[in-house]
Specification:
CATH superfamily of the largest domain: SGNH hydrolase
CATH class of the largest domain: Alpha Beta
Largest sheet: 5 strands, parallel
Order of helices and strands: HEEEEEHHEHEHEEHHHHHEEEHEHH
Shape: globular
Number of domains: 2
Strand order of the largest sheet: 6-5-7-10-13
Number of strands: 13
């Protein structure tokens, strides 16, 4: 009887293996997938952080990039002490995969372009402490600033804003707005971390994550499905019930709960920055509708409340001149040209506003 079940197990295992091999071969030939593995782990303050001392590859039909993190999980070839050296200006970056510089080499990221531009003009050392983690929303950025970012004694905090952030903030369920106050809701948000940390112990899984087109397609589909379900669970369809004071602040509109939450999270980031003698600047990552059509990802009341840099005009001009600004056969991050445009724009704004 046992041998019968073993034969059945082998039979179906063999079928599954061949299905996987066939799907992998099909995708490699006809539908090559972007392969952008995340090496993240549970941080000491309840959210994901980049794993330290990692070297791994990101690839797609458009590019192949080597990603490296230092001993603190920062995408950098340099180690940074918490204490700021004399005569040095520091910028802490809080962002997601755009802030981290996915799909370009480290020296081509907009944060490094910005750093080089600032150093050439200021004639002094500028350090960029990039605390971005792929998948972060504003809630996680706030916790990263409170628990890690301020230790670096920044002169400027630069936050990236993407149109996925409001949903990310609801999905994480870390904060809520109650009686016009930002309140911590849950102590942790570690999606899939335990199983990911377990699987990364095995070389075969690391190969799947770093090389398999079919696995990365399936993982992306599953992740997006789960994300949508979490947003629906945590964000009921009814509008947020806010006080007249908040409604007046945002032009008497009755905003959704995720819009109100995003406003309060950004306000708290600004408060933490100012309490630590740092300025705040927000970089808007435009929503790309077509190759030459870029739209704002920020609501007007958020734009009016904060110091915002938007590269829409500059990106659109370059795109209309037939320059490739975003990688089109991947997850849509900036090309080196897109990063250069944004980095130069950021440096100009920082110098103009005297933010360092």
């Amino acid at each position: 009887m046992l041998s019968k079940y073993i034969k059945i197990l082998f039979k179906y295992s063999f079928i599954l293996i061949w299905i996987f091999v066939a799907a992998e071969a099909f995708m490699r030939v006809f539908e090559p997938q972007p392969i952008l593995p995340r090496y993240v782990e549970a941080g000491d303050f309840g959210i994901r952080v980049n794993m330290p001392n990692q070297v791994y590859k990101h690839q797609s039909p458009d590019f192949e990039v080597i990603m490296r993190t230092n001993s603190k999980g920062i995408r950098s070839d340099v180690e940074y002490a918490y204490e700021k050296p004399d005569g040095t200006k520091r910028i802490v970056i809080l962002g997601d995969s755009f802030g981290m510089g996915y799909e370009v080499e480290l020296e081509d990221t907009f944060t490094q372009v910005m750093r080089r531009e600032l150093m050439s003009t200021l004639d002094q050392k500028v350090e960029v402490i990039n605390l971005s983690v792929s998948g972060y929303g504003t809630a996680e950025q706030l916790l990263m600033l409170q628990n890690e970012g301020i230790k670096y004694q920044p002169d400027l905090v630069l936050v990236t804003w993407h149109d996925t952030d409001p949903d990310d903030n609801i999905r994480s369920n870390l904060f809520k707005v109650e009686n016009n106050q930002l309140v911590r809701r849950n102590a942790t948000y570690l999606p899939g971390i335990e199983i990911r940390e377990f699987l990364y112990q095995f070389s075969f899984y690391r190969w799947l994550a770093g090389e398999s087109h079919f696995y990365n397609w399936f993982r992306g589909w599953a992740a997006n499905t789960i994300k949508d379900l979490l947003v629906k669970r945590n964000d009921p369809p009814e509008k947020s019930q806010v006080t007249d004071e908040v409604a007046k602040e945002i032009e008497n509109k009755q905003p959704s709960r995720k819009e109100v939450l995003s406003l309060f999270l950004l306000k708290e980031i600004k408060k933490v920055a100012e309490e630590n003698q740092a300025n705040l600047l927000i970089l808007e990552i435009p929503t790309r509708k077509t190759r030459v059509d870029f739209q704002s990802s920020l609501n007007e009341f958020l734009r009016d409340e904060f110091n915002v840099v938007s590269p829409i005009v500059e990106l659109q001009k370059s795109a209309e001149a037939s320059h490739l600004i975003y990688h089109e056969r991947s997850h849509g991050h900036f090309t080196p040209l897109g990063c250069r445009i944004i980095g130069e724009l950021l440096a100009k704004r920082i110098l103009k506003d005297g933010l360092l």
